[in-house]
Amino acid sequence: MTTTLITGANKGLGFESARRLVAAGHTVYIGARDAERGRRAAERIGARYVQLDVTDDDSVQAAVKTVEADGGLDVLVNNAGIEYRDENNGVPGAAAMTADDIRTLFETNVFGVVRVTHAFLPLLQKSAAPVVVNVSSGLGSATHVSDPDHPAYHYPGVAYPASKATVNMITVQYAKAFPNMRINAVEPGFTATDLNGRSGTQSVEEGAEIIVRMAQVGPDGPTGGYVDVNGPLPW
Questions:
Q1: Is 31 helix (H, G, I), strand (E, B) or coil?
Q2: Annotated catalytic sites, by residue?
């Protein structure tokens, strides 16, 4: 039995990925900050709930103990993420962005990934087929964001693309450091979720496809990659 933990999984892409992996036979932990929402989500799909705030060391360590006591971990999906929006639900451009704004986003999107991955490494290293999936974004591609002919070029925000570009680099470095693990960054696509005010152009079912696919790669599968449903993306 494959045991999988997904952070930020009580709704959106995380929840849909959890649902699909439960259906595929995984034992899935839904990691969520809010106990009521997390438990409700887990009950809906036959998953397990674990309280997990990726910005809180104590919360993460407690989650490790819970998962370890239940038998260990094979797959970690770092899905929890936030986007910065102003009072008008818009994304502020470079002129309006402050260091504090960026720090807030990095605390979840970057430091959260490192905090959770680092904490669960001992359990993953005991697995016969350990996998880590880092949910990135097409906005993390410097190639696309700097190409006037690509839709990503017109995105005005600074913090979110910077955070996802950092996740991509973290992914590559972890993959090199742990060659026995399959560690990849995925771009789900512009999915309609609370993260973007449901302005995305595809469903969560479509967005979760690449997450679910990469969560199920075998020991001989790809690692150190940055991919969407159609294949590798430019960094």
A1: strand
A2: 160, 164
CATH assignment of the domain containing 94: 3.40.50.720
What percent helix, strand, coil does the chain show, rounded to 5?
A: 45, 15, 40
Q: Pairing mode, if any, of strands 75-78 and 48-51?
A: unpaired
**Residue pLDDT, tens place only, 105-131:** 999 999 999 999 999 999 999 999 999
Range of the domain at 107: 3-232
Please tell me the predicted confidence (pLDDT) of residue 143. Answer: 98
Closest CA to 110 of 48, 51, 173: 173
- The conformational region for residue 52 under phi > 0 = left, psi -120 to 50 = alpha, else beta, is beta
Q: Structural domain tally of the chain?
A: 1
Alpha-carbon distance of 15 to 9, in angstroms, equals 5
Report the sign of the C-alpha dihedral through residues 173, 176, 177, 179, in that order. Answer: positive
